[in-house]
Structure formats: structure tokens, C-alpha cells
Specification:
This protein has about 270 residues and is α/β, with parallel strands linked by helices. It contains 8 helices and 10 strands. It is globular, with a radius of gyration of 18 Å. The structure holds 2-amino-2-deoxy-6-O-phosphono-alpha-D-glucopyranose.
Length: about 270
């Protein structure tokens, strides 16, 4: 696992967008090979999306040859509900870039047959050649997408019941009213994220520090599902100082030193 520790949310957002830049740029040169990008929702990636929108509006990047697969969606709220992940993605990213509508994939939490919806989603990822890069956030309990503690570490896209912690954390988007928060979601599995050729996880703020400690210093455990990503061959965790507050001082120093040395010997 590569761990990039930066000072704050803005620096993290700039770093991640800048990391994606050449990959999106390269996709413009080869129409036959779209870049397949997995995407998260949540407050964490908003800064990254702002930067991507800026790259588009200044003419630096086009998203015409990008195919996206979102991580998850609530079950049973309309797509135009301001807290649906469909709404979120259009509001923060898709409405402001030139990605073709048919290249956007988001699970349909209102499908008549939810199990079939999940299987079709996995099939579509395969038909597209798999995910090149899965961008993700993490929940305060170390979950990835909606793979709550105890989820199978080889799981694929499926229906999940949300944990009380997640319902509580997400109630801030639903007038702090627990009863308004959907209790079920469709989510890609830990295995779906693991299958991506590359994974970039963003974690900012002190409320992620406990999860970061488990994911970085602990072993692989289904109680902290993002810890499975220790086994991905190309995994980068990008966090701000606040998210590293529960790590040992020597762990932080170790990873900062590696980045420093890499910065000195690698071009660019
Ligand atoms: C939800 C989403 C996750 C996201 C997490 C953290 O549970 N399903 O994909 O990573 O929230 O959200 P935030 O970035 O707002 O902390």
C-alpha cells in the first residue's frame, strides 16, 4: 500500500485530481479503449470532483472516453431526491463535464428485481473489461462503499442492510432524522473493488483516524472492510494529517519518508 499524507483537505483533493489527470488525458488518445473509473459519493470526493470539473472547463481534459461505475446507491429513494447518489453525482460531476450519458453507470435502487440489478452491474463491469481505477472514500467504521463491518471480503455487488453507525453518520444529510435515512443500499462488493487494476482511497478529517489506524496498522479483517485493500497490488491511500492522528508517529514518519525519497528520485 502506498500512503500519501498531505496537510489538509484541499491539498488531498488537488493531489487526487492531479493523479487522475494523465489517465483521463491518455483515454482521449485511444478511442477504442475507454478508461473505466469507479467512483464514490460522500463529502470526501467533492473537492476532487471540483478539480475535475475545472480541468474540463479550462479545456485541459475531456471525459468523452471515460466509462464510470458508481459504488453504491440507496434502495427506495427517487433518483431526483437530493440525497440520492444519482443526484449527487450529476450535481457534483456529470452535469458539468462532457461524459456521454450512456457511459455513466449507477446502480438503480428502485429496480423491480434488485438481485438482477446487482448481477447485471457486475456483468456490465466485466463487459467493459473491468475497472481500471476505483476511487473510494471510507466510512468512520472502515467500510468501503456500503460494505459494513462483517461483510464478506470477497463479496460482489449486492443488497446490504446498513449498520446503525452508518445510518447515524448519514442522518446529517436527512435533517438529522434517523427515520428518514434509507436502511438498505445496493453496493459493489469488497471483491468488486479488489478486482480493480488500481484503487485510490481518500480519507480526510479526524473522524476517519480510527479507521485509518486499523486499515494501515492492523491486519486484514472483515470488521474493517477497507483493510482488505492491503491485498490490492496497486493501492494508494491519500489522507490529510488529521486522518493520521491515531497512527503511530513512526508509521507516519515511515510513509512520509518513502514519499520524500520517491519525490527525489522519480521524474516529475
Ligand atoms: C457512505 C458511502 C461511502 C463513503 C462514506 C463516507 O457510507 N457509501 O462510499 O465513503 O459514506 O462518506 P464521507 O466522505 O461523507 O465521510
Amino acid at each position: 500500500m502506498r500512503i500519501v499524507i498531505l496537510k489538509d483537505y484541499e491539498t488531498v483533493s488537488n493531489w487526487v485530481a492531479n493523479y487522475l489527470h494523465p489517465k483521463i488525458s491518455l483515454s482521449m488518445q485511444d478511442e477504442k479503449h475507454p478508461f473505466v473509473l469507479g467512483l464514490p459519493t460522500g463529502s470526501t470526493p467533492i473537492g476532487t470532483y471540483k478539480n475535475l470539473v475545472r480541468y474540463y472547463s479550462t479545456g485541459e481534459l475531456s471525459f468523452r472516453n471515460i466509462v464510470t461505475f458508481n459504488m453504491d446507491e440507496y434502495v427506495g429513494i427517487p433518483e431526483n431526491h437530493p440525497e440520492s447518489y444519482h443526484y449527487f453525482m450529476h450535481h457534483h460531476l456529470f452535469d458539468h463535464i462532457d461524459i456521454p450519458k450512456e457511459n455513466i453507470n449507477i446502480l438503480n435502487g428502485n429496480a423491480g428485481n434488485l438481485e438482477k440489478e446487482c448481477q447485471d452491474y457486475e456483468d456490465k463491469i466485466s463487459i467493459n473489461g473491468g475497472i481500471d481505477l476505483f476511487l473510494g472514500g471510507i466510512g468512520p467504521d472502515g467500510h468501503i462503499a456500503f460494505n459494513e463491518p462483517g461483510s464478506s471480503l470477497t463479496s460482489k455487488t449486492r443488497i446490504k442492510t446498513l449498520s446503525y453507525d452508518t445510518i447515524l453518520a448519514n442522518s446529517r444529510f436527512f435533517d438529522n432524522d434517523l427515520s428518514k435515512v434509507p436502511k438498505m443500499a445496493l453496493t459493489v462488493g469488497v471483491g468488486t473493488v479488489m478486482d480493480a487494476r488500481e484503487v485510490v482511497i481518500i480519507a480526510t478529517g479526524y473522524n476517519k483516524a480510527r479507521a485509518i489506524r486499523q486499515i494501515v496498522e492492523g491486519g486484514v479483517s472483515h470488521m474493517w472492510t477497507a483493510s482488505m485493500l492491503q491485498l490490492n497490488r496497486r493501492m494508494i491511500l491519500v489522507c490529510d494529517d488529521a486522518a493520521t492522528m491515531e497512527l503511530q508517529v513512526e508509521t507516519v514518519k515511515y510513509f512520509k519518508d518513502i514519499e520524500k525519497v520517491a519525490g527525489e528520485i522519480l521524474p516529475g
